[in-house]
């Protein structure tokens, strides 16, 4: 009876996951091979066209750069908030970071045009200070997309990192200091390794989310930097190439899953090595 009751509680959630996530993915995979004459024709066209391969490369390059920058800036920001002595100020800055989720991504992205545009705040300041003779191109290129995606996704790294830092046992750090370890050694040999899984998880989540970003690349890229999401929009809404769109989505899904398993394997190896070192 208890087991049946547990399944009764889990059944609505299971149905939601199946209908909202699993069935659409399965449908996408089926559409990608929906050609009785040649099931893999869409994949052949995809891999035989250099333009499509370039789109995938650009998408992964921007996603990787976004994950690295979010991990770097996110760790510094989370550690800075964690190091504050005043709990009131910690809550204030955490609330400031969390409030970004309340603001529309569309509004935040258009705000960057005001800041980064040729007549934006940065270029006008540089021109008035005679640092440059002409406006610097900061949008409608990969730099603009990178700035926008880092701005949108940075809180996803900061908040879990702060939670991991706050959950550390302070007695470990105090014991290391009492044994004569310097603050730098305490940080690199105790604090950083214990917060590394949260950093890796947050960076991986940012990487995966960037792969499917649409609004920010479409606005700050200005159709000059093609990414997978913008190309898929053209396939579906402009030229109605559903099979090619499904093939591109399936390829992206497969590469992402492989990278995720590779990341999990590396994380498992590092955890086992850390346990062996501790023992």
TrEMBL record:
The keyword Transport is assigned to this record: yes
TM segment ranges: 7-31, 51-80, 92-115, 143-165, 186-215, 242-263
Localisation per UniProt entry: Cell membrane
Recorded topology in the membrane: Multi-pass membrane protein
CDD domains, per the entry: TM_PBP2
Location of the ABC transmembrane type-1 domain: 56-263
InterPro entries found in the cross-reference section: MetI-like (IPR000515), MetI-like_sf (IPR035906)
The entry's keywords: Cell membrane, Membrane, Transmembrane, Transmembrane helix, Transport
SUPFAM superfamilies linked: MetI-like
Similarity comment text for this entry: Belongs to the binding-protein-dependent transport system permease family. CysTW subfamily.
Protein name: ABC transporter permease
Species of origin: Sulfitobacter porphyrae
Lineage, highest ranks first: Bacteria, Pseudomonadati, Pseudomonadota, Alphaproteobacteria, Rhodobacterales
